[in-house]
From TrEMBL:
Coiled-coil ranges per UniProt: none
Protein family according to the UniProt entry: Belongs to the glycosyl hydrolase 9 (cellulase E) family.
Active site: 542, 551
Catalytic reaction annotation: Endohydrolysis of (1->4)-beta-D-glucosidic linkages in cellulose, lichenin and cereal beta-D-glucans
Biological processes per GO annotation: cellulose catabolic process
One GO MF term: cellulase activity
Entry EC no(s): 3.2.1.4
Domain of life: Bacteria
Lineage start: Bacteria, Bacillati, Actinomycetota, Actinomycetes, Micromonosporales
Protein name: Endoglucanase
Keywords: Carbohydrate metabolism, Cellulose degradation, Glycosidase, Hydrolase, Polysaccharide degradation, Signal
Organism in which the protein naturally occurs: Micromonospora halophytica
C-alpha cells in the first residue's frame, strides 16, 4: 500500500503567523542543498534561498531537507513553496489563521454530548440528532444504570456528559482530563500575561444551547461533563461512598456506524477505581474555584464532591481498574501516585489548606521529572499538577515557585531540543508515534506554550507555534490531522456518530476534530493489514475502520482546544 502523498514540499497547509517561525520539509533524493522559491498567489517570487540537507529522518525513513523562510513576514493568501521541481500545497501568512480554530476545536464537544438533543440550528442540520441514552427505546440507559452483576446492588442516574470517542462509552478518567483541559483553557486567561483570549472564550462565543447565560461558553461546555462526573460518585451510605465509578458503557461492543439514540445495548456501571476518584477530585476542585464567580451553588457542590472523593481515594488507595473488558475501553492504570499528586495540587490551589499542601510536597512527583519526552496523557497526569502550580496563583514560597516554573522551562528546553533534532520540526521523538500520539505532540506544545506564558521568552512561543506545522500537513503523509483544516485533511475518523464513510446519510466529523494520528503499534486489524511494516510517521490511514490510528476522542480534542486558544492569541506576534 503506497499512499498518495502529493507534492514533496511539505508545509503547514493552514499557514504561518507573520511574526512566527516558517519552516518546511522537502522529501528528495538530493543530498546537496536545493534552491527554493516562495511564490505569491500571482506567481511572483517573493523570497528564495537554499535548503538544509538533513539526511534520513528517523520517524519517516525519508531523505529530507528543510527550508526556513521565517524572514518573510508579509501577510497574504495562496503562497506556495517551490523546490526540487515540486510545488507545495498553497498556504497563507496571516495573523488570523487560528482564530476560528479556537471555537471549532471546542464545538466538537457539543457534537459529542450525550443525554441532550443536538440542535441543528446551532451546529448545522447534518449534526442534528435526538438525545442519546435517556432510556428511550431502543436505548436502555443512562437514567437507571445497574452495576456490572455482583459488584453493587444499586443503580445510578448517570445521564449526560460526552461520548468518549468513536464509541458510546463514558469514562471518568478520560472525561476528567478532557474537562480539566477545557477549564484550563479558560483558567489560562485569568492572568495579565495571558488575558488576551478571555473575550474570545466568553459568553456566546460557541454555538451552545447555554449561550446568553452570562457564563463563558467554555465553562458551560465543561460543566456538561462535570455534571456527569459528579453523578458517577458512589452515594453516601453505600460501600465505597465518595469514590467514583470508573466508567459506564455498553455490555457488548456495537458495530459501526450507530447513532447514539439507536444503541440497543444494556449499559453497565463498572466498579469504582482510585484513578477515577482522583480525577473527579482534581476536576471538581478546579470547578469549585472557576465557577465560584458564576454559580456559587454549583461551585460548592463541586467543592464537596472534590473533598469527599479525595478522602475516599485515600481510604481506598489501590483499587485499580482491570486491563481487559468488553463493550468499552479499559483506561486501566496501576500507578496512581500521579493522580494523587494532581488531585492534591488542585485542592491546594482552590483551598490553600495545609493538609493538601503537605500531600503535594510529600509526593515524589513534586520534585521528580513529570515531563516525559513523548508527552503526557490520561495515564500520566503529574504534569497537569505541575503546570497548574506554575501558573495558578498560590501561596507557595517564592523559591518554590521559582523552582517549579524552572521545571516547566527546563522541560520546554528539552522539547525544543527534540524539535530541532526532528527533520519535520516537531516536539516529539521518533518513538512517540503511538495511539493518540497527535495529542501528545500537542501536550508537548502546551508545555512550550506555558513556558512562554511564564517567561515571555519568544523561543518557547516559536516552538509551540511550530508544533502546529506537523498537525496541519508538514509531515510524511502531507496530511492535516484536523478535519476541515488544510488542503488535505482527515475526514473519515473512527466514530459511530460521524459515520459518513459507511452511511452517506450521516455526517463526517465536524471541522476541528482531531484524529489520533500515526501509531506504529497498529492495534486494529484494518491498519495492521494495510500498513504492516510502516515507518512510524506513515502508520496512519484516514479510514473509519482504523480505530488505532484514526479515532476522535475528547481528551485529544481538549488538548487541541487549549493549543488552538494559545495559537489564536499569538496572531499579532
Ligand atoms: O486513548 C487510549 C489509548 O491511550 C489506549 O492505548 C487505548 C487502548 O487501551 O485506548 C484508548 O482509548 C480508547 C478507549 O479505551 C475507548 N474509547 C476510545 C478511546 C480512543 O481510542
Amino acid at each position: 500500500y503506497v499512499p498518495d502523498t502529493g507534492p514533496r514540499v511539505r508545509v503547514n497547509q493552514v499557514g504561518y503567523l507573520p511574526g512566527g517561525p516558517k519552516n518546511a520539509t522537502v522529501v528528495t533524493e538530493a543530498t546537496d542543498p536545493l534552491r527554493w522559491e516562495l511564490r505569491s498567489a500571482a506567481g511572483t517570487v517573493v523570497a528564495d534561498g537554499e535548503s538544509t540537507p538533513r539526511g534520513v529522518d528517523e520517524a519517516s525513513g525519508q531523505n529530507v531537507q528543510t527550508i526556513d523562510f521565517s524572514s518573510v513576514q508579509t501577510p497574504g493568501a495562496g503562497y506556495t513553496l517551490v523546490a526540487d521541481g515540486e510545488t507545495s500545497h498553497p498556504f497563507d501568512i496571516s495573523g488570523d489563521l487560528y482564530d476560528r480554530l479556537r471555537a471549532d476545536s471546542m464545538q466538537f464537544f457539543y457534537a459529542q454530548r450525550s443525554g441532550i438533543a443536538i440542535d441543528g440550528d446551532l451546529i448545522g442540520e447534518e449534526y442534528a440528532r435526538p438525545a442519546g441514552h435517556l432510556g428511550v427505546a431502543p436505548n436502555q440507559g443512562d437514567i437507571e444504570v445497574p452495576c456490572v452483576p455482583g459488584t453493587c446492588d444499586y443503580s445510578l442516574d448517570v445521564r449526560g456528559g460526552w461520548y468518549d470517542a468513536g464509541d458510546h462509552g463514558k469514562y471518568v478518567v478520560n472525561g476528567g482530563i478532557a474537562a480539566y483541559q477545557l477549564l484550563s483553557t479558560f483558567e489560562r486567561t485569568k492572568t495579565a500575561e495571558t488575558a488576551a483570549g478571555g473575550a474570545a472564550l466568553g459568553d456566546s462565543t460557541l454555538r451552545l444551547p447555554e449561550r446568553g447565560n452570562e457564563v463563558p461558553d467554555v465553562l458551560d461546555e465543561a460543566r456538561w461533563e462535570i455534571e456527569f462526573l459528579l453523578r458517577m460518585q458512589v452515594p453516601a451510605g453505600e460501600p465505597l461512598a465518595g469514590m467514583a465509578h470508573h466508567k459506564i458503557h455498553d455490555k457488548a461492543w456495537t458495530g459501526l456506524p450507530l447513532a447514539p439514540e439507536d444503541d440497543p445495548q444494556p449499559r453497565e456501571l463498572h466498579p469504582p477505581s482510585t484513578a477515577a476518584t482522583l480525577n473527579l477530585a482534581a476536576v471538581a476542585a478546579q470547578c469549585a474555584r472557576l465557577f465560584a464567580p458564576y454559580d456559587a451553588a454549583f461551585a460548592a457542590r463541586c467543592g464537596t464532591a472534590a473533598k469527599t472523593a479525595y478522602a475516599a481515594a485515600k481510604a481506598h488507595p489501590e483499587r485499580y481498574a482491570p486491563s481487559s473488558g468488553v463493550g468499552g475501553g479499559p483506561y486501566d492504570d496501576t500507578d496512581v501516585t500521579d493522580e494523587f499528586y494532581w488531585a492534591a495540587v488542585e485542592l491546594y490551589l482552590t483551598y490553600g489548606t495545609k493538609a493538601y499542601l503537605a500531600d503535594v510536597t510529600a509526593s515524589k512527583h513534586h520534585t521528580g521529572d513529570v515531563f516525559a519526552a513523548a508527552g503526557f496523557g490520561w495515564q500520566s497526569v503529574a504534569a497537569l499538577g505541575r503546570l497548574d502550580l506554575a501558573t495558578v496563583p498560590n501561596g507557595l514560597p517564592a523559591a518554590e515557585k521559582t523552582r517549579i516554573r524552572a521545571s516547566v522551562t527546563d522541560a520546554a528546553d528539552n522539547h525544543l531540543a527534540t524539535l530541532r533534532a526532528q527533520a519535520y520540526g516537531l516536539p516529539m521523538p521518533a518513538n512517540g508515534y503511538f495511539w493518540g500520539g497527535t495529542s501528545n505532540v500537542i501536550n508537548n506544545a502546551v508545555v512550550l506554550a506555558t513556558a512562554f506564558d511564564l517567561s515571555r521568552d519568544a523561543k518557547y512561543r516559536d516552538g509551540a507555534v511550530q508544533a502546529a506545522d506537523y498537525l496541519f500537513g508538514r509531515n510524511a503523509l502531507n496530511m492535516s490531522y484536523v478535519t476541515g483544516w488544510g488542503e488535505q485533511h482527515a475526514r473519515n475518523q473512527h466514530s459511530r456518530i460521524f459515520g459518513h464513510q459507511l452511511d452517506p446519510s450521516m455526517p463526517n466529523p465536524p471541522a476541528g476534530s482531531l484524529a489520533g494520528g500515526p501509531n506504529a503499534d497498529l492495534q486494529d486489524p484494518f491498519a495492521a493489514n494495510l500498513l504492516a511494516g510502516c515507518e512510524p510517521m506513515f502508520c496512519y490511514v484516514d479510514d473509519i475502520n482504523s480505530y488505532a490510528t484514526n479515532e476522535v476522542a475528547i481528551n485529544w480534542n481538549s488538548a487541541l482546544a487549549w493549543f488552538a486558544s494559545f495559537l489564536a492569541d499569538q496572531g499579532d506576534a
